[in-house]
């Protein structure tokens, strides 16, 4: 089995960080989003992947090749025409074996063991309060009867969370081709939901599986909430002489701390430096320097410098701000 990971989105809601880095490489709880996804795949024995890259895709290629000993093919998406288009670009890599599609900005924690041995095509879902923001699955109690992309008046609250297990790969490719050939779009884009809907029309039996551990990383506030959850799973407590660490925290072994209070819910990346500061509920990325700051609910980009009495900051890569 191979995984397909579309990771070409520009991440406009995460600017300024995505001006200089692809969304899939933004850090959360000590590693890039994509690193969390690949670690989960490896844990379930999946050793082959196709990754769709776009803006700054060379950084994704470099990261994966230098950190993961798996077989990876990279497909470049030149134009953003929707998730259905991104997956369509990978059709030459889809063979007869089942595939697992995972969105490149979605961190998940769920047991895939039963799913990967399942009899039917299946889509990961989660019950949500406002289903209008998502693709929605309607079922008869066992099988999916309809898939609707961001409905105004949803008939179900089972949101598609970005994990798709496809066994009927031949039919899937046929439906992707039909989607593009007939220019079937929703909200102006080619939607994967519509391709899966075509499979249903051709008689494919498709089920849902529950994904409780689904963490969206599409906005600063959801990135920080995901960081909080993942850090809560860390059991070990780091110690740094001359500093106060309030768990849960992740502190890179190469980070430098001097006379600071860090935590709870703080991730500190490789080569960063924190001096005479108090930081909580924040992500300090690689090579960043924080001096004499009070920070909360902040995102500090790679190789950035910040100094002063800021309550909250959202600072992109290679930036400098002082008060």
Mean model confidence by pLDDT: 88
Based on secondary structure, the structural category is alpha/beta
How big a fraction of the residues is strand? 25-35%
CATH superfamily placement of the largest domain: Spore Coat Polysaccharide Biosynthesis Protein SpsA, Chain A
What are the segments in which pLDDT stays under 50 over at least 5 consecutive residues?
none
- And the CATH topology of the largest domain? Spore Coat Polysaccharide Biosynthesis Protein SpsA, Chain A
Which term fits the overall shape? elongated
Our measurement of the CA-to-CA distance between the termini, rounded to an integer number of angstroms, reads 53 Å
Known CATH architecture of the largest domain: Alpha-Beta Complex
Q: Please count the beta strands (DSSP E, at least 2 residues each).
A: 26
Q: State Rg.
A: 21 Å
Q: How many domains would you count in the coordinates?
A: 2
Helix fraction, binned, reads 10-25%
Biggest β-sheet: count, sense, barrel? 8 strands, parallel
CATH class of the largest domain: Alpha Beta
Write the layout of secondary structure elements.
Blueprint: E1 2-6, E2 27-28, E3 31-32, H1 33-43, E4 48-53, H2 57-67, E5 71-76, H3 83-88, E6 99-102, E7 106-109, H4 113-116, E8 121-127, E9 135-139, E10 144-149, E11 158-166, H5 169-181, H6 192-201, E12 206-210, E13 213-216, H7 220-232, E14 244-245, E15 249-251, E16 256-258, E17 261-262, E18 266-268, E19 273-275, E20 278-280, E21 282-284, E22 289-296, E23 299-300, E24 305-308, E25 314-315, E26 320-322
Parallel strand pairs: 1-4, 1-6, 4-5, 8-12, 14-17, 15-18, 16-19, 17-20, 18-21, 19-22, 20-22, 21-23, 22-24, 23-25, 24-26
Antiparallel strand pairs: 2-3, 6-11, 7-13, 8-11, 9-10
Helix pairs in contact: 5-6
